Amino acid sequence: MSALHDIEAPTVVPVGLGARAYDIVIGPGLIAGLGSRIAALRPGARVGIVTDANVAERHLAPVEASLKEAGLTPSTVTVAPGEGSKSFATFEAVLDGLLAARIERRDLVLALGGGVVGDLAGFAAATLRRGVDFVQVPTSLLAQVDSSVGGKTGINSRHGKNLIGAFHQPVLVLADTDALDTLPLREFRAGYAEVAKYGLIDNAPFFEWLERKWREVFAGGPARIEAIATSCASKADVVARDEFETGDRALLNLGHTFGHALEAGAGFSQRLLHGEAVAVGMAQAFRFSVSQGLCAGQDAERVAAHLRAVGLPTRIADIPGELPDTDGLMNLIAQDKKVSRGALTFILARGIGQSFIARDVDPAAVRAFLEAERQ
After folding, report:
1. Would you call 194 a catalytic residue per the annotation?
2. In angstroms, how far is CA 241 from the centroid of its own chain?
3. Which of 100, 107, 110, 116 has a Cα-to-Cα distance from 314 of 20 to 30 A?
4. Which of 253, 276, 287, 337 is catalytic?
5. Residue 260 catalytic?
6. What total number of domains does the chain contain?
């Protein structure tokens, strides 16, 4: 792979969406200059920061200081950490806090945190006063390479994950890679699943690079920035082609149909982080592809072997605690957003880097596969 960045300066990945185009800025130490970047977009604006208690402890003070130094007026709404905050109750509390802070349509919402905060804050921004611009400052690997880019925002329902939301593009994504140094190893691993996903979708050379370089990605430095920039460039390209997921943007959901069902079955809890669910789901998508005669068994084993090597789960048996039975998992899969008029859609694979959208997948085949997976 050729380097995508100059380590002396931030990497900038553009997301080409015409009037809604924006930049993803990637590099170390970016939070310190956050205020000047936002002031260039909205001089003198109020900035409603949405964050969680854990992230606030580590990063809120420098963010607020940078905003104030640039002549901006910050106010903060803090939510509880974890997937449980993607709820109607927390959504209402965030909106109430932003309204109390008098965030107006020419102001900004700033999402400071991981994927949960980004989804929640983005959805709040999409609905506040019928739409307020927002900035993503992702502090987890998963958010930096996936959820902060592309404008998908939303909350969960008891019926499933991300079933309520809106497409609302940010006006800037600022990925400070120094923020990743404070992540627990388990959280970093979970985010890495989304990095591997980009290789498995359509970039076999990137997956091969990750097989060689993953230890350097975990250690930090140039390889980490390289992996983040490559992932963001891949996602930006897909989003520019298919902003509202009417076509091949669905490829970005590799592993998510199985994974979301498992995540919901685990109660959106610390038992199974989103990235861990995606890891199991991707391994399952490749094994299911093998069962349907679409993919070579050695490719599925290679995928699982890499995910296991970095410490990620690859099978239902790796998930602690009880999960719904096969009927229960099938019911959760039926709530997936890619389901159309009851027909199941999966992202399957003909090989590494050869994923495709499979429509009208036979539910009986999925049920039989899940039964075999539980043996």
Report:
1. yes
2. 19
3. 116
4. 253
5. yes
6. 2
Same domain, 208 and 79: no
Phi, psi of 152 (to 5 degrees): -80, 125
3-state SS, residue 372: helix
Same domain? For 268 and 366 the reply is: yes
Determine the Cα–Cα distance for residues 206 and 234; give it in Å rounded to an integer: 11
pLDDT (tens place) for every residue of the chain, 375 residues total: 444 444 468 999 999 999 999 999 999 999 999 999 999 999 999 999 999 999 999 999 999 999 999 999 999 999 999 999 999 999 999 999 999 999 999 999 999 999 999 999 999 999 999 999 999 999 999 999 999 999 999 999 988 889 999 999 999 999 999 999 999 999 999 999 999 999 999 999 999 999 999 999 999 989 999 999 999 999 999 999 999 988 999 999 999 999 999 999 999 999 999 999 999 999 999 999 999 999 999 999 999 999 999 999 999 999 999 999 999 999 999 988 667 777 899 999 999 999 999 999 999 999 999 999 988
Please check whether residues 17 and 122 belong to one and the same domain.
yes
Dig out the tokens for 20 from the structure.
């809604």
- Dump the DSSP string for 140-158: SHHIIIIITSS-EEEEEET
- From 260, 287, 306, 337, the catalytic residue: 260
Known catalytic residue at 337: no
Domain CATH code at residue 49: 3.40.50.1970
Dist. CA 203–CA 77, nearest whole Å? 39
Q: Is 306 a catalytic residue?
A: no
Determine how β-strand 46-52 pairs with β-strand 133-138: unpaired
* Active-site residue, from 46, 59, 86, 152: 152
| Amino acid letter for position 310 | V
Among residues 256, 287, 306, 337, the one annotated as catalytic is 256
- The one-letter code for the residue type at 212 is R
**Could you list the residue range(s) of the whole structural domain that residue 328 is in?**
185-373
Q: Catalytic residue, from 249, 287, 306, 337: name it.
A: 249
